[in-house]
Amino acid sequence: MTQDLSPTTLDQTPVTGWALIPPAVAASDVLTPLQKLVLGRIMGLVGQRGYCFASNSFLARGLGVRPGTITNVVSALVNAGLLRREQIKDDKQTVERRLWPIFAGGVPHVEGRVPSESEHDTGGVPSGSGVEGRSSKTRVEKSAHDILEYLNAATGRTGAERFASPVGITARLKAGVSLDDARLVIDHKVAEWGDNEEMCPFLRPQTLFGKEKFPGYLAAAHRWDKNGRPMPKRRSKVSIGQTTQGQGASQYAGLVQGGAS
Fold this sequence. Notes:
This protein is mainly α. The chain has two domains: 103 residues, Arc Repressor Mutant, subunit A (Orthogonal Bundle), CATH 1.10.10.10; 119 residues, no CATH class. It is built from eleven helices and four strands. Strand 3 and strand 4 form a beta hairpin. It starts with 6 loop residues before the first helix and ends with a helix.
């Protein structure tokens, strides 16, 4: 009989079990090896209830990586549609996280593939996949517009000054970037460039989410976040749009707080 461990005792037990990687996942040319391994580990820990409740710390311990790395991988798999994440809360505090692998005919759903850069025009799914491809593309496009609105609010752009096209954002999300990481890059660059007259014009989607520079921006944003998000020494206050970037970010923060993963 399989032992049904509670979330608390699971974090305290020696690492055991299997990584169950379906052939369709193992053969994927768009999932990274670590994404395949993490997904397989989660699937190996799914119990009779149909979900895995292992924490990021437990998963990281079994794979020899940092919990933060697991956080990023899980977010990418959720955004790709391979996992569904559920937060069980008690009095507004998360007491358990449940990860549900998403299946179709016994294997992960085709819409869950993490697209490569070359697939950004087709939504990351093979042509002819029907509803799955359309729903995946719609979901990513909606997320890209949500990030665009976050950027507009963070930079204080209103009315005709607002960015209308999520150029670059859609491609980054389809490449596996999580919504949290996209917001983090915006937060960091607004803090760094928002009051700099020379740099604040570059607070735009095509610059922040360009294929070549985004990895460097994301690495710098993670360092900034790890150090407590220190604010740079301010120059003279510059209004980016009709409101300042600080006011815009605070206004929009309430709208996205509930949807942040």
